[in-house]
Input
Amino acid sequence: GGDFAYAITDAEGKFELKLSAGTYEVTAFPDPNSNYYNPRPPQSVTVSIGQVLTLNFTLGFADATLSGTIVDKQGNLLSDIYGFVSLEKETQEFFGPGLGGPIERGVFRFKAPAGTHRLVVHFAPGTRFSPPAPQNVTLESAQTTTVTLTVVEFTSFISGFAKDTTGKIITGAEIRVFANNETGVWQDTLVDRTTGKFTLPVAAGSWFLGYDVISIDY
Output
């Protein structure tokens, strides 16, 4: 239903969320600068009126550091780039929502557990550069691993209209158009509700195109 609540743990690690009755997905987000990460997916709980439910989280220890910069093809730091870097396990084990850190002015640094992980870059909407393809990175305990990620500026566009089965342009709808390529780079945009048109900036190459209908005005 869209209800949302959050709390910050106290000195003893305790927290309290005040909720209305219903079913919720609950998770914990450790501070990226701490030595902890959440290795588990969100927990689904159902609470009724007047019920007090106890829910605990066991965090993993982040014993390594990942540091990096975002540069263009000439090796220049892109100081206007913002976003998020996340790490995923090479196996199918879920790493949780808190393993990663923000990109601020083209630079990132955060704690993570030692081992080999899949590094995925997410840029803020409207960024004129394509995020690099996901790649493996190996972190060592008590060590800082530094990476340099080269990105490519968007120089091409995929443009079109959202139409129904009769060929009529659809207006008054919230439709998201997305594209991804073989290396795992993702880009998306919203269709203009007034004109039904979309323009998706992409890098040169082959892309797989899709869409989601979020809502339609009747």
